[in-house]
Amino acid sequence: MPETSRRHLLLGGAAVSAGALLTACTSNEPKAQDAAPAGSAAPAADDKPGTPVTIGFAGPQADHGWLNAINDNAERRAKKYSDVTLEITEGSNDTATQIGQVQTLINKKVDVLVILPADGKALTQIGLQAMKAGIPVINLDRIFASPQAYRCWIGGDNYGMGLNAGNFIGERLKDKPNATVVELAGMDSLELTKQRTQGFDDALKNYPNIRKVARQAADFTVESGQAKMAQLLQAQPKFDALWNHDDDQGVGALRAVAQAGRKDFLMVGGAGAKSAMDAIKADSSVLKATVLYPPTMAASAIDLARALGQKKGVGGMSELEIPASITLYSAVVTKENVDEYLPTGFS
Fold first, then answer.
1. Residue 199 has pLDDT above 90, yes or no
2. In the chain, alpha helices (H)
3. In terms of CATH, what superfamily is 19-156+294-331?
């Protein structure tokens, strides 16, 4: 997941992707398709093909539910367009390998590149190289160190995730004296984890009756979620709410909660996994909400790349060019609205 900054253009709207805007990226706007598969963006469809565009896609290694959904969204979206050819690399979390893969795409002279870098800072030079070679880059989620390394950045709002999770919990506990909360964070070595925590802490400042009493960092895996949650439960025999940064590690966290027989608090997850949405809909566990970090951004990145290749702007906006940056909104999914967001849930 990404190392993003809050300096980007905020486009408020549901995390079913920037679909309403971006599927109209070109004048040959797609017509409606069948319902999208779970974990994918609102459907793009094809009417008249435009200028053929070859898009090079360098994505991550699919070793996490969210990352797998990123790759799936990109491939599915590209297949919707008869005028798009997708040159896709084998995903890698190794920076040297990914640099080599992007270099190959540059040598093939693709029209546009979509890159979710394993490490934004480490891959900045290859982004710069592509841009200097006249190949525009859509920087997906993990941001390059220089804005000159990409034409457009699109990604999620890590600070907004924490902020919205904190506000949801705050509203649920605002009338409870001396309420306490705990946090199951992601990897503390990642900037995104710090941003999610900062957003959460800033939201809690609006609720003086609520105090955060514990925090554990996990590793975005089921196993780490279970182990770290077990430690939290043992150290904190009573608290009122839990903010968990990631739904994959949340699977393990829920296992630890069930094993401990705890039902005395509410839990808010993060990212938008289908398993989390199913649990929210069933309303049979402590999980009451999840804050989205939509992998549908990869489908929107393909829309943007197609628009760039066809020299089009974004439908619904007056400008002739696509934006320089787009930050997706971190919607809160609850029992009341889960049916709306279920189609975007990823496995």
1. yes
2. 19-22, 65-79, 95-107, 124-132, 158-173, 191-204, 222-235, 247-260, 274-282, 297-309, 338-341
3. Response regulator (3.40.50.2300)
